[in-house]
Design brief:
Layout: E1 2-7, H1 22-25, E2 37-42, E3 45-49, H2 55-62, E4 69-71, H3 77-80, H4 87-93, E5 96-100, H5 102-111, H6 113-116, E6 128-132, E7 138-140, E8 143-152, E9 155-162, E10 165-168, H7 176-179, E11 187-191, H8 204-214, E12 218-222, H9 231-237, E13 242-244, E14 250-252
The chain binds zinc ion (2 copies).
């Protein structure tokens, strides 16, 4: 399986519009972060987790021409706002499968009513095929996916385990029962916003404590704010098997 980090930034991305913060002004490409998403490719399948407002740019950056579906972690705009840009895939492939909690599908139906329209649909509108997921394993192509539930302050959020790889974002609390699903991972990706505490996201310390509980072989941090600091400086302070993810990073398992 090949994993591409399409975006690794928190909700406003980096640089933040109009910001004069040194990290927002940095010339290091690793300090420029689109909104969080990953692309998973294996055996001819291609799926993304989330499709935020940078989805179009991310698809152009990675150069793919086929998308088998989108798996949603939760309904926040930084994870969903790019849904209209599935149009080029829809025109070629027909309805694009989306996998999400029923609450998330409800939110998408409200925000993108025209996409879910069955009668009198506008000819240029895209279409989706909905698959509701619960906290139970489901199949994507030839792969079993195990949802891992956490909370983003009070909001339920799904992370996902795909074989030896797991991707969790926008977590603040994860039950020990759910952490058990993450034993024996080669790679764990988890959110780490900044050093200061935040009501709905792991800060760096909480992310490191979480990684220590899960004990994957390697871990990558994502959903990063400019307030965390310069990529290179933060990376130097991290333990040997923990890395800051950056946009366009690819890992193969
Ligand atoms: Zn987010
Ligand atoms: Zn969120």
């Amino acid at each position: 399986m090949k994993i591409t980090f399409l975006g690794t930034g928190t909700s406003q991305g980096i640089p933040v519009i109009g910001s004069t913060h040194p990290v927002c002004l940095s010339n290091d490409p690793k300090d420029q972060r689109l909104r969080v998403s990953i692309l998973l490719e294996w055996d001819g399948f291609a799926y993304v987790v989330d499709c935020g407002p940078d989805f179009r740019q991310q698809m152009l950056n990675v150069g793919i021409d086929q998308l088998d579906g989108i798996i949603f972690t939760h309904e926040h705009a930084d994870h969903t706002a790019g849904l209209d840009d599935i149009r080029p895939f829809y025109f070629k492939q027909g309805d694009i499968p989306i996998y999400a909690h029923q609450r998330v599908i409800r939110a998408l139906k409200q925000r993108f009513e025209y996409i879910f329209e069955s009668k009198n649909k506008y000819a240029g509108a895209p279409g989706v095929k909905c698959f509701e997921i619960e906290n139970k394993p489901f199949r994507l192509g030839n792969l079993k996916v195990i949802p891992v539930e956490g909370f983003h302050y009070r909001l339920q959020v799904f992370g996902f385990r795909f074989g030896d790889f797991a991707y969790l974002t926008d977590m603040k609390t994860v039950d020990d029962r759910e952490i058990k699903k993450l034993k024996g991972l080669k790679v764990l990706v988890v959110n780490a916003l900044r050093e200061d505490p935040h009501i709905s996201h792991f800060n760096l310390k909480e992310a490191l404590d979480f990684i220590a509980k899960v004990q994957p072989e390697k871990a990558y941090l994502t959903h990063i704010s400019h307030k965390l600091g310069f990529h290179e400086e933060v990376q130097q302070k991290l333990p040997e098997t923990i890395f800051l993810a950056y946009d366009n990073l690819q890992i193969t398992l």
